């Protein structure tokens, strides 16, 4: 069913839900789907803010038509060029050949490279304003939140911020579209997993954007994914502030890679020792089963991280390597680290963990343990030492 929803006077949500895609952008699983939000402002000029992923183009254009009833689009604002939002640009140009595309100096080379579009362009700069009739639009550059060209668009007369990916979430909009209409508990993990995996590398740009927009009064934040924020604006901003400062809660994420069960035995042993000391927030993940995006999401939540892997071909197990290299690339900050390994003969996991610790600069809380096969009494003692040292750090530092 195609639909549009008026979210403020003459401002409409014309987004679409995607429940068919299993792997978003060929990397992130989205079991709860994703929404691509787009908006249209009907004033003396008609302005579309961002588009949708191209697989949803037909539904999207019908949504737009339910609002415009044949009236043409004057402006298309591109806050962000990633194809889940730019995918319908060429279709819009076909339908509305006179429209003017608004972007910034970083937007247009991408537009050319992705779609071969290099006409009908109007460049805006940071702080510039465009009058569209009763309403006006202010443009703020927020580079690296999370691409170089990202900007946000603010409509001061209604205090609405079109924020691009910022404040977005995985998960479809099942019925309601506002934060007070949807089940935020159901979406909780998809909100934080979206931040940690899509935006999480860019903590400093996020802080810069929050400072830049800090004095802007807000009645509504319209992101390109997830619910429209109007009731819990302060909550989502506070979360972004916390996440982008890499602030965490007391808890420990244990991620392990295990072929025959011995490394998993060590993970369980450490978890048991943590629990004995009163740690409740313990999340154990098997890297062979759980996508890194979920593990990374928990690492953004909890201060303690304990990693364990068996050896594999003289190195570390491949799924652990994926997790480590992604954490390194993201430059996740502000954690305590413990690690352990298992080998049958030559080993290989321990040196990789050591290199990881040095690169990511997390404080290592205890000497690592390397077990050969099943756990012996000394292995239990060493696993306890790792757990005890982690608790000591979490509680006393
Ligand atoms: Fe939703 Fe960065 O695209």
Helix-strand makeup class? alpha/beta
- Share of helical residues: 25-40%
Please give the radius of gyration in angstroms.
24 Å
- What would the principal axes of the Cα set say about the shape? elongated
Helix count, per DSSP?
12
Strand content: 15-25%
Amino-to-carboxy terminus distance: 54 Å
The description of the largest β-sheet is: 7 strands, mixed
Bound molecules: MU-OXO-diiron
Major sheet: arrangement of strands: 1-2-7-8-9-10-11
Overall mean pLDDT: 97
Number of strands: 23
Low-confidence stretches: none
Overview of this structure, please?
With 397 residues, the protein is α/β, with parallel strands linked by helices. The chain has twelve helices and 23 strands. The protein starts with a strand and ends with a helix. The longest helix has 20 residues, at 377-396. Helix 5 packs across helix 9 (292-301) and helix 6 crosses helix 7 (233-244). The protein has helices spanning 57-68, 83-86, 89-95, 107-115, 184-199, 203-212, 233-244, 262-276, 292-301, 318-330, 349-360, 377-396; strands at 5-8, 11-13, 16-18, 23-24, 28-29, 34-36, 39-42, 46-49, 75-77, 100-103, 121-123, 129-131, 136-141, 151-155, 160-164, 220-223, 249-257, 282-286, 302-312, 315-316, 336-343, 363-364, 369-372. The strands form five sheets. A seven-stranded mixed β-sheet has the order 1-2-7-8-9-10-11, with helices on one face. Strands 17, 18, 19, 20, 21, 22 and 23 form a seven-stranded mixed β-sheet that branches. Strands 12-13-14-15-16 form a five-stranded mixed β-sheet, with no helix packed on it. The protein is elongated. The protein binds MU-OXO-diiron. MU-OXO-diiron (FEO) is lined by residues 80, 82, 84-85, 146, 165, 224-225.
């Amino acid at each position: 069913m195609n639909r549009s929803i008026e979210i403020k006077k003459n401002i409409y949500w014309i987004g679409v839900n995607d429940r068919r895609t299993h792997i978003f952008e060929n990397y992130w699983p989205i079991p709860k789907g994703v929404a691509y939000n787009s908006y249209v402002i009907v004033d003396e000029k008609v302005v579309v803010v961002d588009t949708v992923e191209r697989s949803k183009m037909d539904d999207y254009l019908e949504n737009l038509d339910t609002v415009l009833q044949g009236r043409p689009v004057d402006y298309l604002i591109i806050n962000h060029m990633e194809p889940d939002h730019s995918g319908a640009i060429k279709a819009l140009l076909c339908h509305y050949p006179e429209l003017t595309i608004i972007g910034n100096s970083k937007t247009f080379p991408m537009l050319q490279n992705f779609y071969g579009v290099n006409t009908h362009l109007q460049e805006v700069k940071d702080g510039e304003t465009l009058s569209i009739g009763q309403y006006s639009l202010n443009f703020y550059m927020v580079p690296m939140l999370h691409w170089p060209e990202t900007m946000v668009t603010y409509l001061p007369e209604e205090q609405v911020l079109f924020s691009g990916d910022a404040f977005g979430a995985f998960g479809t909009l099942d019925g309601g579209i506002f934060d007070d209409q949807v089940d935020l508990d159901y979406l909780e993990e998809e909100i934080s997993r979206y931040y940690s995996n899509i935006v999480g590398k860019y903590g400093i740009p996020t802080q810069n954007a929050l400072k830049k927009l800090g004095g802007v009064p807000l009645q509504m934040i319209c992101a390109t994914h997830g619910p429209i924020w109007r009731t819990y604006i302060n909550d989502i901003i506070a979360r972004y502030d916390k996440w982008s400062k890499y602030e965490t809660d007391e808890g420990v994420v244990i991620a392990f890679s295990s072929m025959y069960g011995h490394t998993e035995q060590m993970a369980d042993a450490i978890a048991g020792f943590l629990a004995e000391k009163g740690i409740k927030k313990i999340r154990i993940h098997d890297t062979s089963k759980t996508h890194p995006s979920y593990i990374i999401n928990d690492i953004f939540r909890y201060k303690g991280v304990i990693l364990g892997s068996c050896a594999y071909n003289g190195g570390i197990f491949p799924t652990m390597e994926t997790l480590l290299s992604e954490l390194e690339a993201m430059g996740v900050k502000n954690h305590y680290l413990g690690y352990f390994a298992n080998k049958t003969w030559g080993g290989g996991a321990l040196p990789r963990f050591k290199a990881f610790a040095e690169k990511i600069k997390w404080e290592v809380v205890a000497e690592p343990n390397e077990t050969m096969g099943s756990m012996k009494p000394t292995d239990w003692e060493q696993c306890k030492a790792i757990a005890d040292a982690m608790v000591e750090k979490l509680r006393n530092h």
